[in-house]
Amino acid sequence: MAIEINGLSKAFGGHQVLRSLDFSLPSSKRTALLGASGCGKSVLFHLLAGLLSLDSGRMQVDGELVDKLPVSYMQQKDLLLPWYTLLENASLPLVLSGVRKQEAHAQVQSHLARFGLADFTDHYPNQLSGGMRQRVALLRTMIYRQPIVLMDEPFSAIDALSAQQLRLFLKELQEKEQFTLFFITHNVEEALDLADEIWVMHKESTPQLQRIDSTGLDYEARRKLLWQALGVGQGVLSMH
Ligand SMILES: Nc1ncnc2c1ncn2[C@@H]1O[C@H](COP(=O)(O)OP(=O)(O)OP(=O)(O)O)[C@@H](O)[C@H]1O
Protein backbone atom coordinates (compact mmCIF):
# COMPACT_ATOMS: atom_id res chain seq x y z
CA MET A 1 0.00 0.00 0.00
CA ALA A 2 1.48 3.35 -1.08
CA ILE A 3 0.72 6.18 1.33
CA GLU A 4 1.62 9.64 0.06
CA ILE A 5 1.14 12.86 1.99
CA ASN A 6 1.74 16.24 0.36
CA GLY A 7 1.66 19.81 1.62
CA LEU A 8 -0.16 18.92 4.80
CA SER A 9 -0.72 22.01 6.98
CA LYS A 10 -2.70 22.75 10.10
CA ALA A 11 -3.11 25.84 12.25
CA PHE A 12 -5.22 26.59 15.31
CA GLY A 13 -6.22 30.23 15.43
CA GLY A 14 -3.05 32.04 14.47
CA HIS A 15 -0.82 29.18 15.62
CA GLN A 16 0.67 27.31 12.65
CA VAL A 17 1.37 23.82 14.01
CA LEU A 18 2.13 21.81 10.86
CA ARG A 19 3.78 23.50 7.91
CA SER A 20 3.44 21.80 4.57
CA LEU A 21 4.56 18.27 5.45
CA ASP A 22 5.51 15.93 2.60
CA PHE A 23 6.22 12.28 3.18
CA SER A 24 5.46 8.75 2.11
CA LEU A 25 4.78 6.44 5.00
CA PRO A 26 6.92 3.29 4.66
CA SER A 27 4.51 0.46 3.94
CA SER A 28 4.68 -2.70 6.09
CA LYS A 29 7.38 -1.12 8.23
CA ARG A 30 7.61 0.24 11.76
CA THR A 31 8.22 4.00 11.79
CA ALA A 32 8.83 5.98 14.97
CA LEU A 33 8.05 9.68 15.32
CA LEU A 34 9.86 11.70 17.95
CA GLY A 35 9.92 15.40 18.71
CA ALA A 36 9.64 17.91 21.52
CA SER A 37 6.39 18.23 23.38
CA GLY A 38 3.86 20.39 21.53
CA CYS A 39 5.55 20.22 18.10
CA GLY A 40 2.46 18.65 16.51
CA LYS A 41 2.89 14.88 16.54
CA SER A 42 -0.59 14.11 17.87
CA VAL A 43 -2.13 16.70 15.54
CA LEU A 44 -0.48 14.88 12.61
CA PHE A 45 -1.96 11.55 13.76
CA HIS A 46 -5.39 13.13 14.21
CA LEU A 47 -5.21 14.46 10.63
CA LEU A 48 -4.13 11.09 9.23
CA ALA A 49 -7.00 9.39 11.09
CA GLY A 50 -9.53 11.96 9.89
CA LEU A 51 -10.30 13.23 13.40
CA LEU A 52 -9.21 16.73 12.37
CA SER A 53 -9.55 18.30 8.95
CA LEU A 54 -6.59 19.55 6.94
CA ASP A 55 -6.19 23.27 6.26
CA SER A 56 -4.41 22.32 3.05
CA GLY A 57 -2.62 19.38 1.52
CA ARG A 58 -3.65 15.96 0.29
CA MET A 59 -3.46 12.34 1.32
CA GLN A 60 -3.31 9.50 -1.17
CA VAL A 61 -3.57 5.75 -0.73
CA ASP A 62 -2.44 3.80 -3.78
CA GLY A 63 -2.88 6.93 -5.89
CA GLU A 64 -6.44 7.61 -4.66
CA LEU A 65 -7.24 10.84 -2.82
CA VAL A 66 -8.65 10.13 0.65
CA ASP A 67 -9.81 12.31 3.53
CA LYS A 68 -8.55 9.81 6.07
CA LEU A 69 -6.21 6.83 6.04
CA PRO A 70 -7.40 3.29 6.85
CA VAL A 71 -6.10 3.26 10.43
CA SER A 72 -6.52 1.65 13.78
CA TYR A 73 -5.63 4.44 16.14
CA MET A 74 -4.50 3.98 19.71
CA GLN A 75 -4.55 7.40 21.28
CA GLN A 76 -2.73 8.70 24.33
CA LYS A 77 -5.91 8.46 26.37
CA ASP A 78 -7.12 4.89 26.61
CA LEU A 79 -10.76 5.86 25.81
CA LEU A 80 -12.21 2.88 27.67
CA LEU A 81 -15.91 3.12 28.50
CA PRO A 82 -16.34 3.13 32.30
CA TRP A 83 -19.63 1.20 32.25
CA TYR A 84 -18.20 -1.72 30.24
CA THR A 85 -16.05 -4.53 31.59
CA LEU A 86 -12.58 -5.22 30.24
CA LEU A 87 -13.97 -7.96 27.99
CA GLU A 88 -16.75 -5.72 26.66
CA ASN A 89 -14.39 -2.80 26.11
CA ALA A 90 -11.87 -4.90 24.22
CA SER A 91 -14.60 -6.53 22.12
CA LEU A 92 -16.31 -3.27 21.19
CA PRO A 93 -14.64 -2.60 17.79
CA LEU A 94 -15.42 -6.16 16.68
CA VAL A 95 -19.03 -5.90 17.83
CA LEU A 96 -19.43 -2.52 16.12
CA SER A 97 -18.04 -4.02 12.92
CA GLY A 98 -20.83 -6.60 12.97
CA VAL A 99 -19.20 -9.61 14.66
CA ARG A 100 -21.64 -11.41 16.99
CA LYS A 101 -21.04 -10.58 20.65
CA GLN A 102 -20.32 -14.16 21.68
CA GLU A 103 -17.80 -14.63 18.90
CA ALA A 104 -16.15 -11.27 19.61
CA HIS A 105 -15.80 -12.21 23.26
CA ALA A 106 -14.29 -15.57 22.32
CA GLN A 107 -11.76 -13.88 20.04
CA VAL A 108 -10.75 -11.40 22.70
CA GLN A 109 -10.55 -14.10 25.35
CA SER A 110 -8.06 -16.08 23.28
CA HIS A 111 -5.65 -13.10 23.44
CA LEU A 112 -6.09 -12.03 27.06
CA ALA A 113 -3.31 -14.14 28.56
CA ARG A 114 -0.73 -12.74 26.16
CA PHE A 115 -1.60 -9.26 27.35
CA GLY A 116 -1.49 -10.28 31.01
CA LEU A 117 -5.21 -9.62 31.41
CA ALA A 118 -6.71 -13.11 31.73
CA ASP A 119 -7.68 -12.69 35.38
CA PHE A 120 -9.43 -9.35 34.90
CA THR A 121 -12.11 -10.05 32.29
CA ASP A 122 -14.99 -8.83 34.44
CA HIS A 123 -13.22 -5.81 35.89
CA TYR A 124 -14.34 -2.28 35.04
CA PRO A 125 -11.76 0.33 33.91
CA ASN A 126 -11.75 2.05 37.31
CA GLN A 127 -10.68 -1.26 38.88
CA LEU A 128 -7.61 -1.52 36.62
CA SER A 129 -4.21 0.16 36.92
CA GLY A 130 -3.10 2.70 34.31
CA GLY A 131 -0.78 0.12 32.77
CA MET A 132 -3.54 -2.44 32.54
CA ARG A 133 -5.90 0.02 30.88
CA GLN A 134 -3.16 0.74 28.35
CA ARG A 135 -2.85 -2.98 27.66
CA VAL A 136 -6.60 -3.25 27.09
CA ALA A 137 -6.36 -0.33 24.66
CA LEU A 138 -3.47 -2.06 22.87
CA LEU A 139 -5.40 -5.32 22.68
CA ARG A 140 -8.44 -3.48 21.31
CA THR A 141 -6.29 -1.80 18.66
CA MET A 142 -4.71 -5.08 17.64
CA ILE A 143 -7.88 -7.12 17.51
CA TYR A 144 -9.69 -4.99 14.96
CA ARG A 145 -6.77 -4.02 12.86
CA GLN A 146 -6.74 -1.80 9.77
CA PRO A 147 -3.79 -1.81 7.31
CA ILE A 148 -2.18 1.11 9.16
CA VAL A 149 -1.74 1.20 12.93
CA LEU A 150 -1.17 4.58 14.58
CA MET A 151 -0.04 4.56 18.20
CA ASP A 152 0.47 7.66 20.26
CA GLU A 153 2.94 6.83 23.05
CA PRO A 154 1.61 3.29 23.44
CA PHE A 155 3.85 2.22 26.31
CA SER A 156 4.28 5.42 28.28
CA ALA A 157 1.90 4.44 31.08
CA ILE A 158 3.19 0.89 31.47
CA ASP A 159 5.87 -0.31 33.87
CA ALA A 160 9.26 -1.00 32.26
CA LEU A 161 9.00 -4.79 32.27
CA SER A 162 5.50 -4.93 30.79
CA ALA A 163 6.50 -2.28 28.25
CA GLN A 164 9.47 -4.37 27.14
CA GLN A 165 7.29 -7.48 26.78
CA LEU A 166 4.61 -5.64 24.85
CA ARG A 167 7.19 -4.01 22.56
CA LEU A 168 8.54 -7.43 21.69
CA PHE A 169 5.02 -8.74 21.20
CA LEU A 170 4.14 -5.83 18.92
CA LYS A 171 7.34 -6.28 16.92
CA GLU A 172 6.66 -10.01 16.39
CA LEU A 173 3.06 -9.31 15.45
CA GLN A 174 4.07 -6.65 12.93
CA GLU A 175 6.72 -8.93 11.42
CA LYS A 176 4.15 -11.70 11.07
CA GLU A 177 1.24 -9.63 9.80
CA GLN A 178 3.19 -6.91 7.97
CA PHE A 179 0.90 -4.00 8.82
CA THR A 180 2.22 -0.45 8.61
CA LEU A 181 3.02 0.80 12.10
CA PHE A 182 3.54 4.51 12.80
CA PHE A 183 4.09 5.33 16.45
CA ILE A 184 4.89 8.37 18.56
CA THR A 185 7.33 7.98 21.41
CA HIS A 186 9.42 10.15 23.71
CA ASN A 187 11.68 7.21 24.44
CA VAL A 188 14.83 7.10 22.28
CA GLU A 189 15.60 3.49 23.22
CA GLU A 190 12.07 2.44 22.34
CA ALA A 191 12.44 4.04 18.91
CA LEU A 192 15.80 2.35 18.35
CA ASP A 193 14.54 -1.06 19.52
CA LEU A 194 11.22 -1.11 17.73
CA ALA A 195 11.46 1.00 14.58
CA ASP A 196 12.85 0.30 11.10
CA GLU A 197 12.74 4.03 10.42
CA ILE A 198 12.97 6.98 12.78
CA TRP A 199 11.64 10.45 12.05
CA VAL A 200 12.06 13.58 14.12
CA MET A 201 9.52 16.39 14.01
CA HIS A 202 10.80 19.92 14.61
CA LYS A 203 8.90 22.94 15.80
CA GLU A 204 10.81 25.59 13.94
CA SER A 205 13.11 24.22 11.23
CA THR A 206 12.06 23.55 7.65
CA PRO A 207 11.44 20.87 6.57
CA GLN A 208 9.62 20.08 9.76
CA LEU A 209 10.06 16.32 9.40
CA GLN A 210 13.56 14.86 9.42
CA ARG A 211 14.30 11.26 8.52
CA ILE A 212 17.21 9.89 10.52
CA ASP A 213 19.45 7.96 8.18
CA SER A 214 21.46 5.58 10.29
CA THR A 215 22.27 2.96 7.68
CA GLY A 216 25.35 0.99 8.62
CA LEU A 217 25.66 2.49 12.10
CA ASP A 218 25.80 0.46 15.31
CA TYR A 219 23.35 0.97 18.18
CA GLU A 220 25.43 3.53 20.09
CA ALA A 221 26.11 5.63 17.00
CA ARG A 222 22.40 5.53 16.08
CA ARG A 223 21.52 6.58 19.60
CA LYS A 224 23.92 9.49 19.48
CA LEU A 225 22.69 10.61 16.09
CA LEU A 226 19.11 10.57 17.29
CA TRP A 227 19.84 12.62 20.40
CA GLN A 228 21.69 15.12 18.20
CA ALA A 229 18.71 15.40 15.87
CA LEU A 230 16.53 16.05 18.89
CA GLY A 231 18.86 18.85 19.86
CA VAL A 232 19.63 17.32 23.23
CA GLY A 233 22.95 16.02 24.51
CA GLN A 234 21.35 13.48 26.80
CA GLY A 235 18.54 13.03 29.29
CA VAL A 236 14.84 13.56 28.76
CA LEU A 237 13.20 14.83 25.63
CA SER A 238 10.49 16.91 27.16
CA MET A 239 8.71 17.58 30.37
CA HIS A 240 4.98 17.03 30.51
N1 LIG B 1 -7.83 21.02 19.09
C1 LIG B 1 -6.86 21.93 19.28
N2 LIG B 1 -7.15 23.24 19.38
C2 LIG B 1 -6.18 24.16 19.53
N3 LIG B 1 -4.87 23.88 19.61
C3 LIG B 1 -4.53 22.58 19.55
C4 LIG B 1 -5.50 21.54 19.37
N4 LIG B 1 -4.84 20.36 19.32
C5 LIG B 1 -3.53 20.65 19.46
N5 LIG B 1 -3.34 21.97 19.59
C6 LIG B 1 -2.04 22.64 19.73
O1 LIG B 1 -1.20 22.15 18.72
C7 LIG B 1 0.14 22.04 19.21
C8 LIG B 1 0.65 20.65 18.97
O2 LIG B 1 -0.04 19.73 19.82
P1 LIG B 1 0.21 18.17 19.79
O3 LIG B 1 -0.72 17.56 20.79
O4 LIG B 1 0.16 17.66 18.42
O5 LIG B 1 1.72 18.08 20.31
P2 LIG B 1 2.63 16.79 20.49
O6 LIG B 1 3.83 16.97 19.67
O7 LIG B 1 1.82 15.55 20.28
O8 LIG B 1 3.00 16.93 22.03
P3 LIG B 1 3.22 15.81 23.18
O9 LIG B 1 4.48 15.13 22.83
O10 LIG B 1 3.34 16.62 24.42
O11 LIG B 1 2.01 14.91 23.18
C9 LIG B 1 0.10 22.44 20.68
O12 LIG B 1 0.51 23.78 20.79
C10 LIG B 1 -1.35 22.29 21.04
O13 LIG B 1 -1.72 23.19 22.06
UniProtKB/TrEMBL annotation:
InterPro entries: AAA+_ATPase, ABC_SmlMolc_Importer, ABC_transporter-like_ATP-bd, ABC_transporter-like_CS, P-loop_NTPase
Record domain ABC transporter: where: 3-228
Molecular function via GO: ATP binding; ATP hydrolysis activity
Protein name: ATP-binding cassette domain-containing protein
UniProtKB keywords: ATP-binding, Nucleotide-binding, Transport
Metal-binding listed as a keyword: no
Ranges in a coiled coil: none
Keyword Transport: yes
Organism: Entomospira culicis
Pfam families named in the record: ABC_tran
Tree of life domain: Bacteria
